[in-house]
Amino acid sequence: MAHHLQLFQQIKSFYKAEGYGTGAKKYILHFQGGSRIGGQTYDQLLKSALTRSKTILGSSKNLNQQMFYHGWFERTKTANEYYYNWNMIHLNYCDGTRYKSDPVEYNNEKLYFRGDQIVKSWLLDLNDELQKAELVIVSGCSAGGIAAYFWVDYIRSKLSANVVVYGVPDSGIFIDMPAIDGTDNQKQSLSLLMELVNSEVTHPNSECVKNNQQQEWKCYYAQYLLEYIKTPVFIVQSLYDYYSLSQLFKVDCSDNYNLTYCSQDQQDFSQTLYSKTYDVIMKRKQNFQETGGFAPSCLEHCFLLTPRYDSSDWEVPGQSGNTLSNTLYKWFNSNQKYDDNLYMDGVEWPGNGHCSNSEISNYQTQIQIIIIIIISVIIS
């Protein structure tokens, strides 16, 4: 059995590894992540899109024919005990709008924002086999995590009632709040993007759109969308999302995946992000008891297709044995309405020491001090 995923391309572009044995009728549908096009004006958005169109995140022309993945896409039993023989399907992200939208012209070049069409073509192509599936998991990381929130109920609605469907979005919660400098570029950019490319398509979660007709932008934030998602979900999310802190909220002291060198204001802002993310997940759990989750109090972004998936350094609580791999498996195989499968750190950073990177920072500081002393001795 091949240990890689094979590329398939037509309107859509995806990698696939065939399931076999006990995994022949079980599927993981994973949306690739990769941020989105951005800008505070239409021109900036289109310039960002044109630049992106020349990369593998904007076009499938230069993708490798085969791809190897880590974490729960590993294809050996020793590396991925629970899912090694499942059907693994990785939808490539070549749209830049979080898998939504339509075409526009810029600098004499046509930019095809076909995320909505790509996803529906992908699902149509897989429809016959998915209708015969036992279990389908809708997943994705970062922008792909948001896509999993977007599409999980739609996918559920298109499949037979006999097919069990779950959502496992990874790092798809981006909190709606201004950056540390008071700007709100994230929301402004999103509003422009919606006007630019979503004129002929609607958000796949129709209930969210119906209930937010004057504020449809809310349906692009998981914190609001979770209220309308009926499919059971297992939320994978850092409570201090690294991408959010370092890129969206401009907390530049977090670049080393820790808060050691942050000012008090920066640390306070980071704790606000922790509290808001914690509250979003808890609200989902209170409203939908079957919700599970894995949420460490450490700075990171994306887990499922990385070594962090089953690393003993990433456990909730710390040193409990509750890795993402173990907790996710427990959730799949439990009575979800009655068992508590929400593994969320109740401590703030750096309370979960093994994944906090605080010890690494202290070590780096000691090295820097030693180097300064040596240089001082040499100079003197």
Automatic annotation (TrEMBL):
GO molecular function, a single term: hydrolase activity
Domain of life: Eukaryota
Name the UniProt record assigns to this protein: Pectin acetylesterase
Classification via PANTHER family: NOTUM-RELATED, PECTIN ACETYLESTERASE
Any Pfam family hit: PAE
